[in-house]
What does this fold into?
Amino acid sequence: MDIHNRKVMVLGGFGLVGRAVVRKLAQETPAEIIIGSLGEQEAREGIEQIKDEAPGVKITPVWGNIFIRDSLKDLSREEILDHPEHRAQLMADTMEPLDEDIMAHSTLHQLISRHQPHIIIDTVNSATGVAYQDIYDSYYKVSRELAATRQQAGLSDNLVSEVEKLMASLYVPQIIRHIQILYASMLENHTKVYIKVGTSGTGGMGLNIPYTHSEEKPSRVLLSKSSLAGAHTMLLFLMGRTPDAPITKEIKPAAAIAWKSIGYGPIRKRGRSIELVDCTPDEALVLGKAYRFEDPGNWRSLGRPLESVYIDTGENGIFSLGEFECITTVGQMEFVTPEEIATNVIMEIKGDNTGHDIINALNNAIMGPTYRAGAMRHGALERMRRLAEKHQVDSVAFELLGPPRLSKLLHEANLLRQVCGSLQDLVKADSGQLTRDLEALVESNTEVRSKIISIGVPILMSDGKRLLRGPVVEIPPALARDEIPITPKSIDDWAEAGWVDLREANIGRWQSRARAILAEAELIPEEESGSQYHHNREYWAPDEPLNAGKVAAWIFVNEDKGLRVKR
It folds into this structure.
């Protein structure tokens, strides 16, 4: 489609990618660019800059949370969940069948209907926005409340039971746990190859799939199946990018799979034969003002099962002649045989490239790191260093990226730089004296101390008993608990995960790291100038002030086994 004189909507248009998209769009002279943002303030502040970047193009800002209804679109997630009526509305909008009211009040629907764009470009990080609501935190809170109120008079056992069933039925945690166990088990038992035969969830059809499980088309149950199939694939994609994982592949048939056998006999559903029943016109149910779901009992059993000709498609069930003919017609699901799938599986195991491995397809199709970004990285780092020097600040860690372990490592390295200096100096220093110097720095320098504890990272003093902390502590996570016991092991675990640790044992560990880094550098011949090594001797600059970011990355690669192996 030609962009010239067209209306284009860019969702998330004030974000990093959104702005870049708008700049490129402006060069194509669209009639109008409608730019969506989460917050009104962000939209109003960003509109003037966007106009400067797209001269001559009509720019229209819109805002609001596109995942919820119009009346809630400007509220934070916390404001919605803490308000009983808002919370009830959100649950209904999410879980009830899609009807005219939900559709009409959808923020996204209103934006599209109001502006009627020819093209929509969505740069919103939808996965982050939805997944980071942290159902795990909610699980702990709900579990605690259920336990506390289970014995109270008036609390329905059925209510407790149904809430627990709802929590146990959440899809994503189940597939995540499955992958966690699968990966750990294969790693422990030295599995070399893992091939998954997956599904698209719709037999290769789109959102217009006519085969459904309810009055909705498509049904939420079916879309949940497809969503989980996609989530499963992405988790396997991550497993395939893990250094020690088995070779990971997925064959994903996008058609009906058939068949196992053809025959005549009783037709079974969920393991039981379908009972033939009859209801005569004299026994008909007279429809009134309401339809009741309870069985009126105005039918009688014929005492025999439904018998017919069938085709058995395995996991997908038993189909009649008419059903199979319809579903496999050209333009419907059509079908693929299990033998064809098996052939592709065996070929992939043997190393042949069938072209049907979805994990390999993702690896080839994704955008990875680029030469342009690598070339620009040095300039970005230099500008940040100049600004830090100009403002006389140490830009160490903010605990926005996570994990708390990264913030802890960066701050520990920065403290060592201040009291010690270089990697060479760190190796030569006395660990006891270093510990005393670090504690003296923390005790005397409010600026240094506050920038650590203000981001949720506490400081464990050298005695291992005193803890400096602010109002928020990231480690240990509360998980809806009021308190947890403290043991020597728990202190060690928490310090490892996210506390700045001033104990002498930890300082000795930093000295060991410095020795290992210098030893690696020493192994590189001084005259080496080829491309064999990522980092040459000059990279580590042993006599220059310790670089916290470089050392933290080394720790993540070597101690935490966090090496990226595919680009």
Summary: The two ends are 32 Å apart (CA to CA).
